[in-house]
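Summary for the steering committee. The consortium agreed at its last meeting that each partner would contribute one worked example illustrating the joint modelling workflow. Our contribution is presented below. We chose a case with several input lines so that the handling of multiple components could be demonstrated. No manual editing was applied between input and output; the record is shown as generated.
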Amino acid sequence: MNKVSVIIRREYLTRVRKKSFIIMTLLAPLLMASLVVIMPLMMLSGDKDLKKIAVIQDNTTEFQNVIPDTRNEDFVYLSGTDINDMIKTFDTAGYYGVLYISPRALNNPIIYSKKQPDIALLDHISSSLEKDIEKKKLQEYNIQNLDSILKQIRTNVNPVTKLVDEAGGTTETSTGIAMALAYIGGFLMYMLVFMFGAQVMRGVIEEKVSRVVEVIVSSVKPVQLMMGKIIGVALVGLTQFMIWVILTMGAVAVLKTTILRKTNMTEITQNITQNVMAENQTPAQATASQTAQISPEMAEFSKLFDNAMNQNWTLIILSFIFYFITGYLLYASVFAAIGSAVDNETETQQFMLPVTIPIILGLIVAMGTMQNPDSPIAFWFSLIPLTSPIVMMARIPFGVPAWQIILSMGLMIVTFLAFVWMAAKIYRTGILMYGKKASWKEMWKWLRYSG
Amino acid sequence: MSLFEAKNVTKQFGDFKALDDVSISVPEKCIYGLLGPNGAGKTTLIRIINQITGPDSGTLFLNGKKLMPEDVLTIGYLPEERGLYRKMKVGEEALYFAQLKGLSKAEAMKRLRYWFKKLEMVDWWNKKVEELSKGMQQKVQFITTILHEPKLIIFDEPFTGFDPVNANTIKNEILFLRERGATIIFSTHNMASVEELCDNITLINKGKTILEGRVDEIRNKWAGSEYELVFQGDIKLQENGHFKILSQTVENGKSAIRLSAATDVSTNEILNDVMKSGKVISFNPALPSMNEIFIRVVESRN
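What follows is the complete predicted structure of the assembly.
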């Protein structure tokens, strides 16, 4: 049997048989599934912490009951209370805050509170007041049947995004879905590369510390040992990932049918839809859709699902596999080189930072990418091989010109080959070097040693 | 005929010359001692023989042919810095190393069964390595080194960690391996075992060969100037221009004296000198131990 495959087999089997691996592999999907199911449940039950907000109008009752109560806030309209007294006592009286509306400064009502009020509350207050004031201004024109006219002209605008391909055909897509995919793709890439890259490093250190390495390299070439380990760990990663995907899907299905049947399914669906839609809607629209009927919402939800299916899944999955393999090989070889240079795990600290920076940077840029997928920063970082696996995965759901993907992949291949080659040279010297304080300078020297 | 030869091997790490024009020639079926103080370059030479690193210049021959990468399958190596995967089971781990040396699984199993039985280790097969004592681990490593029946075996400090009983078992196995036709390179600081086991040695210091040859010849050559005398009774021996007294002990009514003769003084002249001092029981040229030779050669070079 080929020696590298003997090594791959050992690396794979020893890891897969570990108790920690089995527990992690089985527990993670359960955790993930319960998150998927419990999160909407929690949103549904909402904030138990109901905020009471006192509304005080300055010499008017014009705005009585204009601001409707929400799930989390009750608006209590007080009359005959002095605002200055109220500011001193609202806290002890059990109010979250005081809203002060004065006809003299209609555009700037004041909210007094102990804590910074959240943006949803402000939006709710301002949109309610705006609508009321606009309505009153309209009423001054003495238009007949104003109420029914207003009801009739109420519209709800939801832009539909369609991507145009080379042939001129269009596909309906959703920005929300694209963002979710970008986020998941980028983050997953970051997690996998980091987790399994670090596993390679620990494996190399284990071999060096236990002194088993010299026995092995008298039978196989150091680069064979390194590649065997890297590939073995990659297979462990893929195995775990596949099991996670299958188990998570299974667990979600089971939990959905058993737990959720008891609760109001429609309400949950509605909740999810609103959360997705809130991303790309103005507050007014969100409020509008809240008051809308359930059936259009269900339609919206299924449309969202259709849009998700319209994403170019083949491209996403294929590029994910490509960037995972090359990105992992690139970083794992760097991790292997670091592992070979140190005498124990604590010594790795000084080397981890320069390796972590590009990965974290990639993640940050990837998150920013969702706001503007074609910004120069996103463009350059999706070409630079150290960050491209993460950033490009975040860009692809928004559509990337083919030449950029090809260029990025080409650079990635060249770079990962160069990194593996350099890492192998450092590794070969490092694994047999004990007691020498490792440094970047030292590793540079090893790089230039002859075979 | 030499089974293994290294000619003019040089290896440099940065500014440090680990090996400087070193040549060794290991005759077939001999136990060849590779000696030298710490940092002399022994490990580097051994690693070059194992093709773990390559020499900057110089050539290596195995069986008269240039050393090739596939020759690692006919070489066995027990490094000084050795270890096992601690979390693996003993049997699995031994099997793994055997497969890395090119044995098929079935063949490896067959040979492992033989050796585990021979060295009384059958019960350990399913134990984890970390449950074994240091000596037990050494035994496992000894087996993995020789399992593929290499023609050339390199032992670097094979006896460390063994109790006297097990050390003796291993020593006998090494002698047995030679009988069956293996050639052995043996690196150690334990000079008593060099005297006991080695046929030939090379002494390396600071990357250079400073002494080489057959062990008995070397000892005879260095014996030239020292003598051991035993007298009846407690006697006083007078130093003269012919010799110096190195040591004198009195025990059981006998005096044991060690002399160092001046150069160009014959045995007869010394005998003549000492006979007057008392009744001589024995008079022998003293064979210096390898330990003494080692120290003297190395110190004279420093």
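Chain B touches chain A through 32 residues (CB under 8 Å). The longest helix of chain B spans residues 164-179.
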